[in-house]
Amino acid sequence: MADAPAALGAPVVRREGRDKVTGRARYAVEHRLPGLAHAWPVPARVASGRVLGVDDSAALATPGVLAVLTHENAPRLAEPDDPTLAVLQDPHVPHRGWVVALVVAETLEAAREGAAAVRVEYLAQDHDVLLTPDRPDAYVPEKANGGHPALREHGDPDGAFAAAPVRVDTAYRVPPLHNHPMEPHASTARWTEGRLEAWCSSQGTTAVRRTLAAVFRVPETAVTVRAEHVGGGFGSKGTPRPDVVLASMAALHTGRPVALAFARRDLPALVGHRAPTLHRVRLGAGPDGVIRSLTHEVTTYSSRIKEFVEQAAVPGRTMYTSPHSRTVHRVARLDVPTPSWMRAPGETPGMYALESAMDELAGELGMDPVELRVVNDCRVEPDSGKPFSSRHLVECLREGARRFGWAGRDPRPGVRRAGQVLTGTGVASATYPVLVSPSTATARALPDGTFLVRVNATDIGTGARTVLGQVAAEALGAAGDRVRIEIGDSDLPAAPLAGGSSGTASWGWALHEACTRLARRLAVYRGALPQDGLEEHADTAGTADAESDYARHAFGAHFAEVGVDTVTGEVRVNRLLGVYAAGRILNPRTARSQFVGGMVMGLGMALTEGSALDPAFGDFAERDLAAYHVPVNADVASVEAHWIEEDDPHLNPVGGKGIGEIGIVGTAAAVGNAFHHAVGVRLRELPLTPDRVLEALGGRVG
C-alpha cells in the first residue's frame, strides 16, 4: 500500500482499489472451496396458494444433479424473526417468485438445467396486487419504518389549510423501485463438524451471523460470516436474505460446500424493493410564502407475511415551518413480495412529493422557488421541538444558486426553446437524518511500529476501509501506511450494518475511541512492546445510542436543467448540481463519489426507473436490466457535487454526518420541477418517460 496522508479530510485513494481492478478481490461466490456444489432456486408460478406436490424425478435424472430440496425434505429451521427467511418450510405460497424448491448440482449449468426440469403442482388462490389510494382495507399502523409513529399531528391542519390565502392540494405517485446492485445477492456456505462458515454479499455480517445461529439452532460461536468485498447493496443487503439461508440449508443437506447466486430476474421477488407510494400533499401559506398548514398523507403496501411501511411522510416533520401539520401513513397488505430498504428509504419518495408540492406552491404565490424554501427555514425541528444540531439548508440553497446561475433564470415556463427542444431549470431541497448505532472495535500497536485496527464494518463500495483507516491514523498520530485494517468478518469485534448512512459514524466512533485510548497508553509506555503488541478495546453502547438533545440531520440543495424534446417526448438532463451540508467531510474523493452516485440514482428514478405488478399474474413486469432501465453514461451529461464547511459538535468524535443517501433525496423532484419549468405542464407520476410526456403535452406545445 502506497504511503498516504493520514489526516481526515485528505482525498486518500481507496485501499482496495488495485485488488478490484486487477481481479484479486473475491466476492461471495468466488471462493473455490474443495468439493464446491452449486444451487439454483425454483420460484413459484402462482401469486397466492399452496404447493400440492413436487415432481423432481426429471431433475434428479439430470447429469450432475445431487439433490432437490423442497418443503418436504429441507432441513427444519427455527422460526425466524423475519418471515421472508422461512424458505422451504411449508407448502404456502405468499407471492409469485417465492422459492418452492432448490436444486443442488456439481455445476452451475447442471443446477439450472435441473431447476428447469422440476414440476410443481399448485392450488392457486385468488390474489390482489393493486394499490389504490382509496382501498378500504388500508390501515394506519402503529409504526412506520425506523420506529417512526405512523401518524403525527400538530395544531389544526384542516382549519389552517381552509383559512390559508394560498393553497396547494395535489397528489403524486412513485412506482415500485428495485435495488439492482452489480453483484446480485449471493452466498457460499460450508458446514464442518457442526460449524457453519458463510461468505455472503451482505451489508452487515454481525446480523447475518446472529440470524443463522438462531434458525439453525447453533451457538453464534459456531458461525462465521464473511463479506470481504460487496458489489453494492443500496439497502437490499442490509438484512439477511434467503440466499444465505438456502445456501446453508443445501450445504447441510448435501454435506458439500454450496454456492448460490440469485439470477437478476429473481431479485425483485426475493430481496425486497421500494414499495410504491401514493401521496396527497396539502400546503397552505400566507402571501409571504410562510407555510401555515402542511399535510402529507401516504398510502403504500406490504406483503401478507410481513409489515414493512415506507416512512415517506416523515420528511414533512423536519423540513419547513409548519405550526399546523398532519403526516400519516396507511398500508394495505397485498399478495406481493415483501418490500424492504432502498437507498434513503422514506426520504426519497417523501421528498419527491413534498418538494414537488413546494414548487407548485411557489407557482401559486408567484414566488421564486429558492426564496420560498428560504423563508420557510427553521431553527427548531417542527415535530420534536428540538433545536437542530446544525442546519445549513439556506447556505446550500444560496451556494447552489450561485454555482448554477439561478439568478439569470426567467421564471416563466416554456420560454427557452431551441427548435423542438424546450429547456427548464428546477430546484429541490434534501434532508437525511444523522443515524448512529453502538459498535465495538479494537486497536493494537505492534512491535514493528505498525498498527492493526479491527471492526466488523462492511465496505459495500463506499470506501469504508479507506476512511476508517484515516480515522484510525489521525487518532493514533500515525501515517496511513502504518495502519492495517481488518473488516468484513463476523469474528471481528461486532459492529452494525452499512446502512442508513450510519456506517462510518458508528464504526468510526468505536474505532476512534479504541485508537485514542491506545495512543494515550503508548504515550506513557516505556520499553519495547511485547511480541503480540498492546491492544485497546472500545464499545460505544450507551453513548452512541444515547438520546440527543438535538435534532440531527444533513441537508442539501439540488438543481437541475432539463431539455424536453416536444416531438419525441424524450427528457434529457443537461446539468445536475448538488450542494450539501453534511458535517465534516472525511475524504473528499470518496465523498464526491457517494454524492454523485446518489444523484445519478435519483436521475434514474426521475426518468427511467419504475416497475409495475401485472394484476393477472401478480408478477413484476420489469424484472431485469433489459426492462428496468437504470441510467448509463450517455444519460449523465454533467453531475457536480459540492459541500459547505460545517462544524457540528453534537454528532460524534469525527464530526461526520452520513453522505451515502442524501444525494438521491431531492434529485427526482429537482428534475420534475425543471420539466415543469421547461414545458409548463406538471407530471405528478414518475418516471417521466416519453409516452407520458407526449400524452401530457397533447397539442399544447411542440
Helix content: 10-25%
Query: How large is the radius of gyration?
Result: 26 Å
How would a textbook summarize the main sheet?
A: 7 strands, mixed
Quote the average pLDDT. Answer: 96
Q: Order of strands across the widest beta sheet?
A: 3-5-1-12-9-10-11
Low confidence ranges: 1-5
Strand content: 15-25%
Helix and strand content put the structural class at alpha+beta
- For the record, give the distance between the C-alpha atoms at the N and C termini, rounded to a whole number: 58 Å
Tally of strands:
26
Q: Characterize the overall form.
A: globular
The total of helices stands at 16
Set down the secondary structure blueprint:
Layout: H1 17-22, E1 37-43, E2 49-55, H2 57-60, E3 65-69, E4 92-93, E5 99-105, H3 108-117, E6 119-124, E7 151-154, H4 157-163, E8 166-174, E9 186-192, E10 195-200, H5 205-215, E11 223-226, H6 242-254, E12 258-261, H7 267-270, E13 277-285, E14 291-303, E15 324-334, H8 347-365, H9 369-375, H10 393-404, E16 416-418, E17 421-433, E18 440-445, E19 451-454, H11 464-476, E20 483-486, H12 503-524, E21 534-539, E22 553-565, E23 571-581, H13 588-607, E24 613-614, E25 619-620, E26 639-643, H14 662-665, H15 667-679, H16 690-697
Parallel strand pairs: 1-12, 10-11, 14-15, 19-20, 23-26
Antiparallel strand pairs: 1-5, 2-4, 2-6, 3-5, 7-15, 8-13, 9-10, 9-12, 13-14, 16-17, 17-22, 18-19, 18-21, 22-23, 24-25
Helix pairs in contact: 8-15, 11-12, 13-15
